[in-house]
Amino acid sequence: MKALEALYEAHKIAFNPFVFETAYTMLELGILEAIHNHKREGASIEELAKETNVSEYGVRVLVEMAEAAEIVEKTENGNYVATKVGYFLLRDEMTRVNLYFTHDICYNGLFYLKDSIVNGKPEGLKTLGDWKTIYEGLSILPGRLKKSWFDFDHFYSDNSFDDALKIIFKDSPSRIYDIGGNTGKWAIASTKHNKDVNVTIFDLPVQIRAAKENIGTMQEIKDRIDFQETDMLDATSEIPAGADVYWMSQFLDCFSEPEIEAILLKIRKNMSPDARVYIMETFIDNQRFPAATYSLVATSLYFTAIANGNSKMYSSSAMKYIVDKAGFECVDEHHLHGDSFHTILELKRK
Ligand SMILES: C[S@@+](CC[C@H](N)C(=O)[O-])C[C@H]1O[C@@H](n2cnc3c(N)ncnc32)[C@H](O)[C@@H]1O
Asked: 345 and 315 in one domain?
């Protein structure tokens, strides 16, 4: 990279929040949609102002920043059209889920990233609520914020469930423990997938309450799902014996390496030697697309500044190292295909 290009890149970083807020504001005010609707001829500032009820001044400052950031570009007659980047901001579901998660959950809290690193605590969490970790408040976040968090979480896990079900049910389990089962999506999917299986959801009280509400009216499955309020970080909590499968989806990334080891040891303590533990994660070293790796390393900083202050998205090699230390053997590694970014590690007791 030439020095002038590097200086330009450095400036993009220095002004990065301006670009982010411009993209967000243009989506929210319908300006990007309006530009896109004009197709190849593009739209003038005056047209956009009229169509979106935003002042010409407002449209102009946003569109000029968006042009510099290559979200829109000018046609020969001076109108604005959306670029491919603009198109993805507007229409790509994953981009939108990431953008709204960043805006609603992370943006204010990231201001405290330095303090979080220095103090080893999620100092940005105070922008959302008065909790020790975000998990104490997930299901009681205010409406729009709750939607953004759950859209983000579910977008990634939901896309993997079909493939994951095939892997987990290959040995016909009769009881699954879903640890960190959240609002019950996996429990619902697996009890619908198999008419005989029973599932117990382990999670914090606030999520268990939400899961009970979700599942309570589902006549065909509700009798096969149990709920267990459990804080996996509490040294006195136990995971009882009795499961054929211990399922942890996007769960262990919520903890530090020593905490993951302690959780695995807790599971190992009472599990039968024939049972299997499945860990489904988006590992940073198992991604096919640079956008995915970029999203994951960014998500680590959400854990640092907002969620809990001490966890991250892990590489599969780091996870396998902890798994081994906790007395498990990784007997298989399933790479999910299609729209999924996940890997499932299949473990048994050593
Ligand atoms: C990122 S979500 C994953 C949810 C779900 N398994 C999925 O795949 O979408 C992590 C879940 O772990 C739960 N959790 C976090 N800390 C916990 C703890 N100390 N004990 C029990 N559950 C916890 C959260 O409440 C949340 O439901």
From this structure: yes
Burial 118-151 (b: 16+ CB within 10 A, else e): eeebbbbbebbeebebbbbbbbebeeebbebbbb
Q: Specify whether 193 is located in the same domain as 231.
A: yes
CA of 307 to the centre of ligand 1 (A): 11
- Answer yes or no: is the C-beta of 184 below 6 A from any ligand 1 atom: no
Domain that holds residue 32: 3-91
Mean pLDDT per 10-residue section of the chain, whose length is 350 residues: 96 98 98 96 97 98 98 97 98 96 98 98 98 94 95 89 95 97 96 97 96 95 98 97 97 98 98 97 94 95 98 98 98 88 96
Considering the domain architecture, whether residues 62 and 103 belong to the same structural domain is answered as no
Reduce the DSSP state of residue 225 to 3 states and report it: strand
Task: Tell me the pLDDT tens digit for each residue of 153-203.
Answer: 999 888 899 999 999 999 999 999 999 999 999 999 999 999 999 999 999
Tell me: do 83 and 101 sit in the same domain.
no
Q: Which of 47, 66, 91 is the last residue of a domain?
A: 91
Is the CB–ligand 1 distance for residue 138 below 6 Å?
yes
Regarding the beta carbon of 183 and ligand 1, being less than 6 Å apart is answered no
Centre of ligand 1 to C-alpha 206, Å, is 11
Contact 307, 152 (CB under 8 A): no
Tally of domains within the chain: 2
